[in-house]
């Protein structure tokens, strides 16, 4: 996604037009966000100021009731936003130190005036150049250039959001780099979330004298999702067969979940401007499932330890692969039916009485108890079976939770879905098929970066959030456990 024109401001929530959206999205639908501000955000001065902003939204709220994006006239030119003289010094970062990957969102200011440019220190310029001119940092750091968001305004500063990730196992190397680039001299506090914000807090202090101001990862996640979605009309999408035929009414010989049927699924934009209620399924190392009724009204309904970390760990064990990208590439060309036991392997056909088609997986990895079959199976097939097992299990739990909670839209995010259309299509099919069309699986372009964005939004908050969120009170934890 490369946004080209239009201005995104938190103050005005007067939103964007992006290159890809000129044909497909409706800038005005986001003109007046229909959600109230996340509690975590509403506590920070940034959005308090936004509410008081004298600038009026220039475009009217969209009146469409369906969720399909469509072309629209261009948005009017942007009004300047007043710079905020009390803003914290640059550079501005938000950080999510997860179980597998650390995500860093960097705000690159644009439109510096002469005075500001003169004031900018050499160190600051070097940091900016280093981060924005490279897309790889050391051996493992990567910038997801395709996700870059132009024309974001934060505290009266217009700029660009950059999305950077590196393995959490490399936090030590990151700290060394931060020291060598002089970052440590400029930044004394970073808003950070994820388990690593707790685990590595002392290392940040000792190694680079940086304080981590810790935010709850689920608070930050939701704030980030709502913010990025409000900025980018292309953010939310779904996968469906080209003709949108409901998969549970599928009447051809090709099973609707076969590789062949899924291969024709296409990605379509979804208007998520009236989001509530929805279920948010974050597939990171493990999986968290949240019911979101409003920006500051959510609870963690369930989770599973069989997540992205499990997929990668099992794939490494079973296939000898050494990266997520390799695991996904193997899975893309494999066939899980040589590994899994299908209903037809047990019944010789369908188990019709209970509507279980013969092609359905009856037992994941169920064929692997036979030495002969183990000898014949390929790495690709093993990777595919691992992907299908993990994905279907997450899909089943999500579906049960959504039905239980009477929710129709399930939004999946997290880096397990990175470069992984197969899992997204499987989830789309499974949610729709098993709910007889009642549930819709939705996906988000900035997959794993929402926690880090949620942290960036806090950058001017004087309020340090309590470490224990109200959402994880002992009674909630008990409730969540009992739910399983
Ligand atoms: N480059 C990568 N390296 C490792 N895992 C990756 C990578 N890209 C995607 N993944 C997948 O994303 C998962 C981590 O997702 P993420 O949302 O970042 O969670 P966490 O916050 O737990 O690190 C991994 O377990 C893996 O399945
Ligand atoms: C503990 C976690 C919130 C950590 O988040 P992550 O780094 O995996 O994104 C997550 O891994 C999780 O919810 N695990 C599942 C635990 C369970 O409900 O069984």
TrEMBL record:
InterPro entries: ATPase_NBD, Type_II_PanK. It is found in: Cytoplasm. Pathway: Cofactor biosynthesis; coenzyme A biosynthesis; CoA from (R)-pantothenate: step 1/5. It comes from the Eukaryota. Residues 63-88 are annotated as: Disordered. GO terms for biological process: coenzyme A biosynthetic process. GO terms for molecular function: ATP binding; pantothenate kinase activity. One of its GO terms (cellular component) is cytosol. This is pantothenate kinase. It comes from Parnassius mnemosyne (clouded apollo). The lineage of its organism: Eukaryota, Metazoa, Ecdysozoa, Arthropoda, Hexapoda.
């Amino acid at each position: 996604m490369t946004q080209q024109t239009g201005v995104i401001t938190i103050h005005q929530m007067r939103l964007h037009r992006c290159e890809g959206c000129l044909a497909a999205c409706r800038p005005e639908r986001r003109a007046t966000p229909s959600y109230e501000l996340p509690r975590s955000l509403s506590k920070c001065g940034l959005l308090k100021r936004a509410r008081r902003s004298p600038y009026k939204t220039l475009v009217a709220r969209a009146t469409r009731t369906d969720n399909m994006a469509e072309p629209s006239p261009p948005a009017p030119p942007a009004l300047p936003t007043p710079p905020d003289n009390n803003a914290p010094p640059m550079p501005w970062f938000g950080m999510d130190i997860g179980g597998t990957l650390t995500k860093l969102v960097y705000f690159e200011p644009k439109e510096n005036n002469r005075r500001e440019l003169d004031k900018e220190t050499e160190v600051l310029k070097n940091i900016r150049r280093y981060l924005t001119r490279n897309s790889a940092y050391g051996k493992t750091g990567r910038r997801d250039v395709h996700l870059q968001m132009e024309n974001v305004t934060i505290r009266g500063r217009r700029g660009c959001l950059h999305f950077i990730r590196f393995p959490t196992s490399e936090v030590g190397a990151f700290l060394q780099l931060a020291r060598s680039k002089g970052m440590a001299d400029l930044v004394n506090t970073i808003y950070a979330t994820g388990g690593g914000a707790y685990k590595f807090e002392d290392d940040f202090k000792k190694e680079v004298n940086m304080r981590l101001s810790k935010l709850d990862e689920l608070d930050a996640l939701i704030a980030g999702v709502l913010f990025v979605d409000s900025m980018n009309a292309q953010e939310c999408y779904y996968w469906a067969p080209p003709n949108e035929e409901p998969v549970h009414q599928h009447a051809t010989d090709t099973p609707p979940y076969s590789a062949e049927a899924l291969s024709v699924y296409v990605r379509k934009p979804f208007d998520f401007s009236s989001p509530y209620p929805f279920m948010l399924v974050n597939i990171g190392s493990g999986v968290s499932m949240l019911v979101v009724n409003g920006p500051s009204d959510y609870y963690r309904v369930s989770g599973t330890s069989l997540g992205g970390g499990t997929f990668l760990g099992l794939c490494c064990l079973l296939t000898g692969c050494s990266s997520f990208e390799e695991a996904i590439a193997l899975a893309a060309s494999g066939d899980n039916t040589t590994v899994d036991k299908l209903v037809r392997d047990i019944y010789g056909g369908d188990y019709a009485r209970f509507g279980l088609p013969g092609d359905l997986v009856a037992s994941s990895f169920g064929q692997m108890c036979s030495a002969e079959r183990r000898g014949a199976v390929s790495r690709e097939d093993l990777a595919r079976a691992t992907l299908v097992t993990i994905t279907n299990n997450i899909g089943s739990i999500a579906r049960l939770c959504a039905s239980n909670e009477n929710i129709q839209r399930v939004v999946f995010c997290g880096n397990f879905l990175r470069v992984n259309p197969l899992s997204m299509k499987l989830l789309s099919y499974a949610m729709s098929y098993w709910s007889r069309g009642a549930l819709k699986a939705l996906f988000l372009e900035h997959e794993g970066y929402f926690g880090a964005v949620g942290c960036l939004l806090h950058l001017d908050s004087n309020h340090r959030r309590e470490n224990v969120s109200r959402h994880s009170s002992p009674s909630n934890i008990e409730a969540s456990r009992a739910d399983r």
